[in-house]
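pasting input
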Amino acid sequence: MASTTDGFMMPLVAEEAAGFWEGTAAGELRMQACSSCGTLRFPPRPMCPRCRSTERHWQAVSSSATVWSFVVPHPPLLPAYQAVSPYAVAVVALDEDPRLRLVGNLLDTPDGGIGQVDPASVKIGEAVDAVFVTLHGDNGSQVTVPRWLRRHAS
Ligand SMILES: [Zn+2]
């Protein structure tokens, strides 16, 4: 697995999730949607859990969410993560459908680092909005990830 040029881990871009990553690169969240019943699902997978259709497409959704849960990783951590510790890793639930949950980092400013948020200040249920941050891999790759800007901080 590739690392970023500053030592963080790069996400693995799986083929089934290509539409998600094309969306983030374009600055929007896209969820896999069932072409038969319309159910949105995340993470991406080949079959609809509701109607079992394998017909699917990508659909843009709003970037608003709430903090559903979070953890504060403890040592041992990789050196880049240790340097910014403590930080929160959040699970956010999209306003579009709270069953759609994504894991990511919280931010107080759009261009902040993952260690800028004091984990003690994070509240379950607080409102966040996706911002898109491009990570540069040490192998020349790049991936744009969503991070979650706390609405009260902006
Ligand atoms: Zn379906």
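fyi The chain is about 10% helix and 35% strand.
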